[in-house]
TrEMBL record:
One Pfam family cited in the UniProt record for this chain: DUF433
Biased composition (Polar residues): 87-97
Protein name: DUF433 domain-containing protein
InterPro entries in UniProt: DUF433 (IPR007367), Homeodomain-like_sf (IPR009057), WH-like_DNA-bd_sf (IPR036388)
């Protein structure tokens, strides 16, 4: 487990992401939220799997819930990007042997 605690960088302050993430890492707040609250993984499991301090996982979750407007904007951006690029993906039923 990582010993260093990181801070959360907002979308506006980031130079590597267009969404909030753990400073010095490419792990986003949304990623942490999806793992813990979406998939039901424990915060400790997420910390262990991604070499994070447990506190960083909790900081990311707190940021997610403390900034609902920003997180909704992030989700809308992700949905638009997926829709705009849907033509670039392959439907498994269209793949030939």
């Amino acid at each position: 487990m990582a010993a260093q605690a990181y801070r959360i960088v907002s979308s506006e302050d980031s130079t590597i992401h267009d969404e909030p993430h753990i400073e010095g890492r490419r792990i986003t707040v949304q990623f942490v939220h999806e793992r813990v609250e979406g998939r039901g993984l424990s915060p400790q499991t997420v910390a262990d799997r991604h070499d994070l301090a447990l506190g960083d996982v909790y900081r990311a979750l707190a940021y997610y819930h403390d900034n609902p407007d920003e997180m909704r904007r992030v989700e809308r951006r992700r949905q638009r990007a997926a829709a705009d690029n849907a033509h670039l993906t392959t439907d498994p039923e269209n793949v030939r042997d």
